[in-house]
């Protein structure tokens, strides 16, 4: 009886190794995991209004707050802009909603098709830079760790 259990254990180990080798040639699982995480990180930057390294975005100017507050509303006497209500880069939510993740067998991709995204991400003339795209140092470390684990067949 003991010999039978040893054979079954060895077969299970061989099966694990075969599956690990199969996964080595198809890294779409890994690139998918990374792209979804990158998309989540960008979403958190919009929520927290910070760049990839956690530094706060430059505050809105008072005239930007006033125009956001009054846009689409009937103007009434005595109405003043309130700084706490205005979310940076989220007047309509179009930019935040446009962020999409996708992956190929060799790439993890997060991006947007909104033309003005680059203007806000990199800054231009009087529009200050408010980075929402890019990898933080912590993300780079995390993804390197995931890649190492994937090579060893330990990533799930």
The radius of gyration computed from the alpha-carbon positions, rounded to a whole number of angstroms, is: 24 Å
Number of helix segments? 6
Distance, first to last CA: 34 Å
User: Roughly how much helix do the residues carry, as a percent range?
Assistant: 40-55%
Q: Widest sheet: strand order?
A: 1-2
Portion in beta strands: 5-15%
* Overall 3D shape: elongated
Report the strand count.
Answer: 2
- Summarize the biggest pleated sheet: 2 strands, antiparallel
**Average of pLDDT:** 81
> Structural class per helix/strand content?
mainly alpha
Low-confidence stretches: 72-77
Taken in chain order, the helices and strands follow as: HHHHEEHH
Task: Walk me through this protein's architecture.
The chain is mostly helical and 156 residues long. It has helices at residues 2-25, 28-48, 62-70, 94-98, 117-122, 137-152, and strands at 100-103, 108-111. The protein has a two-stranded antiparallel sheet. Strand 1 and strand 2 (108-111) form a beta hairpin. It is elongated, with a radius of gyration of 24 Å. The two termini are 34 Å apart. The model is unreliable at 72-77 (pLDDT under 50).
């Amino acid at each position: 009886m003991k010999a039978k259990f040893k054979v079954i254990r060895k077969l299970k180990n061989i099966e694990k190794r075969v599956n690990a080798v199969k996964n080595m040639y198809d890294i779409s699982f890994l690139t998918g995991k990374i792209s979804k995480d990158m998309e989540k990180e960008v979403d958190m930057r919009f929520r927290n209004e910070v760049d990839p390294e956690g530094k706060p975005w430059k505050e809105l100017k008072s005239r930007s707050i006033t125009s956001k507050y009054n846009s689409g509303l009937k103007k009434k006497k005595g109405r003043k802009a309130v700084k706490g209500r205005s979310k940076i880069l989220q007047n309509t939510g179009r930019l935040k909603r446009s962020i999409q993740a996708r992956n190929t067998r060799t790439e993890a991709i997060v991006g947007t098709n909104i033309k003005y995204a680059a203007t806000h991400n990199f800054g231009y003339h009087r529009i200050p830079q408010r980075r929402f795209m890019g990898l933080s140092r912590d993300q780079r470390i995390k993804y390197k760790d995931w890649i190492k684990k994937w090579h060893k067949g330990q990533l799930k």
